[in-house]
Structures are given as structure tokens and as C-alpha cells.
Amino acid sequence: MSGSPFHRTEAICLRVIDYSETSQILRFYARDSGKISCIAKGAKRKKSTFRGAFHFLAVYNLVRMEKMSGSLDLVTQAELIEDFHALAEDFSRYSTACYIAEFLDTFTLDGQVVGNLYDITSEALHRLQKDVPLPDLLFSFESKALRALGFFPRLRECGGCRSAITTSEAYFAPRDGGVICLRCRPRDQKRFLVRRAALESLVHFGEGDMPREPIKKWLVDALRTILDTVITYQLERTLRSSRFVRRALLESDKLMDNNSVTRVAPSLQKGV
């Protein structure tokens, strides 16, 4: 009904805080409402209408009563659609899931709906349950999420002279929005050299492509450095769970050694 304070939405639970003996304060990212904060009164009671307490990273079909600005919305109904609790049995995959939740929570504002960010997150959580290599899964999520948020860096064109990057290396300068060619040499003190193969690989991740073969350790390190730099620059701080993600990548049994074959952009495979 038009003007009703009640809203039904599908949402991923990003945070759960126990409040009193029976209630919970919850943070969700909803498909059609963006990030919302709610209270579920009596959620922990055995005979709760919610059929149990809410869980971190679970997906719900919610009915909530929208309150005035500055107040928590009230969850009145909730149906569990999907639960990713099995990820807790694997440190690396659970750490990655926690990182995804923190990324989404930190980069979005209350009530802000960002393009297809809900679907990008849902896809990443489903891939975590499958045998998708962690580096591939994580770089795909971060690249597509940053693109949806408008923070994906410029990787093929120099931010100074606007010419295409054709050399085997270029500078990456977060303050300049991405790559700078060797001729322009950025003033950004946080600049660093990066191989063009890494830049092209990140472009493909941002476009939704997934590698057909495991990627080399040097490439994992290079992409992690670029993405950490972009994220830290945009947020002006590091994500708390980022150190666990680095550990998860190191422990991933899908990571090949330096002799493995890496998938790079078709143009580089042709020697362009």
C-alpha cells in the first residue's frame, strides 16, 4: 500500500549485535534499500516469531517498519533464504567472507543502493562455497565492487598525457586515479611500478572475466598491492580484516608457484 511504513526486501546480514537478553541489533545490505540498520525485538527467544536468532552473512526475506531518521528500523517478519554458516569451518574462506562483509559495510552509506552491488556480493558468497580459487574470487569481487562504486582505477591510459600504456611497466599512483606512464612520472610519493600484465589482469577481473588457470604468486602479490592501495586511499584507512585475507591467500592451496602458467589479457598473449 502506498505510503505504508512497512517494506519487504531481500537482504544480506552484515553485522549482528546482541542487545539485551532477547533482542538483536542488525545491519543488512538490502537488494532494493541499500544498507539498513534494524532491531529485532525478541529474536533470541525460543518461541520467537523469527524462528531463531539472526546470523551473520545469512540472507533473509525481511519485512521491516521504517522509523524516523536516526532511529533503527523494526524487523517485524523474517524468512531465512540462505545461510553461509558452513564457511566457518574453513579459516581462509570464512576470513574472506568477513572481509567481503566489512568491505560492503564500510564502502556504502545508509540507504544507498549501488547498482548491482547486491548481486556482486551474493555471487562472491556463493563462489566461496564452491571450489573457486580464493585469489580469483577475491580479485573478481573487489574489482567489480569498486567499479560499481565508481572507485575502480584507470589502468590502460596515462592520467598525465592520456596516452595508452604500451610499455611493460608503468607507475601506479592512487592520488592520480590510476596509472601514469614512465614519461610523465607522477609526483605522488606513494607511487610504485607495476607490470602491464598485472594491469591487464585487473581490467579483466573488473569486467567479470575469471582466469582459466591458477595465477602466479607474483601476480597475486601485485594485484593485492594495487587493490589494497586503492581501498586504503579511498577509505583513508585499511580494512580490519585485510590482514586475515592476506593470510588466507598465502594459505590457499590453489595458489601455484612461480613456474605455473598465468592467464593474462589476450593482447599481451599476442605480444602487443
List the helices and strands and how they pair.
Elements: E1 6-19, E2 23-30, E3 34-40, E4 59-65, E5 73-82, H1 91-107, H2 117-128, H3 134-149, E6 169-173, E7 178-180, E8 192-195, H4 196-206, H5 217-235, H6 242-251, H7 266-269
Parallel strand pairs: 3-5
Antiparallel strand pairs: 1-2, 1-4, 2-3, 4-5, 6-7, 6-8
Helix pairs in contact: 1-2, 1-3, 1-6, 2-3, 3-4, 3-5
Structure notes:
- It is a single chain.
- This protein has 272 residues and is of the alpha+beta class.
- The protein folds into 2 domains: 6-83, Nucleic acid-binding proteins (OB fold (Dihydrolipoamide Acetyltransferase, E2P)); 87-269, Recombination protein O, C-terminal domain (de novo design (two linked rop proteins)).
- The protein has helices spanning 91-107, 117-128, 134-149, 196-206, 217-235, 242-251, 266-269; strands at 6-19, 23-30, 34-40, 59-65, 73-82, 169-173, 178-180, 192-195.
- It is elongated, with a radius of gyration of 21 Å.
- Residues 253-272 have low confidence and may be disordered.
